[in-house]
Specification:
Layout: H1 6-19, H2 30-38, E1 43-44, E2 47-48, H3 53-59, H4 62-68, E3 72-73, H5 77-88, H6 94-106, E4 108-109
Antiparallel strand pairs: 1-2, 3-4
Helix pairs in contact: 3-4, 3-6
């Protein structure tokens, strides 16, 4: 499985800020960035905390993580708005994370291989 690294996320952030015509101020909390990078890869007592790509994507940066692993999604703007509102207006719980992972999996575009 391919994971996103620190430089990729910094470059992505810089690109988004540049497109928004804003000034890049650097990484504000590098420990937080490291936690976000390492969290999807964590193993505890030989068991992955996020055991499949869908839960990893729900925790991490969803669409970008999936895209880096060759997985594409298909959804409408309205579906995306509903999803974002559901995630941002509910408490951060395992149930919300699993629901997001299921949504991502349901919107996967089958590979044409």
């Amino acid at each position: 499985m391919r994971y996103l690294n620190k430089q990729f996320l910094i470059d992505l952030n810089q690109d988004i800020i540049k497109r928004a015509d804003k000034k890049y101020g650097g990484v504000q909390y590098s420990q937080g960035l490291e936690i976000v990078i390492e969290q999807p890869q964590q193993v505890l007592f030989g068991k992955e905390l996020y055991p499949n790509i869908w839960i990893k994507a729900a925790f991490f940066s969803g669409i970008i993580f999936l895209y880096a692993n060759g997985i594409r999604l298909s959804y409408t703007d309205d579906e995306a708005v509903v999803l974002i509102l559901d995630v941002t207006t509910n408490p951060d719980t395992d149930e919300v994370m699993v629901a997001l992972a299921e949504w991502l999996k349901a919107h996967q575009v089958p590979n044409e291989a």
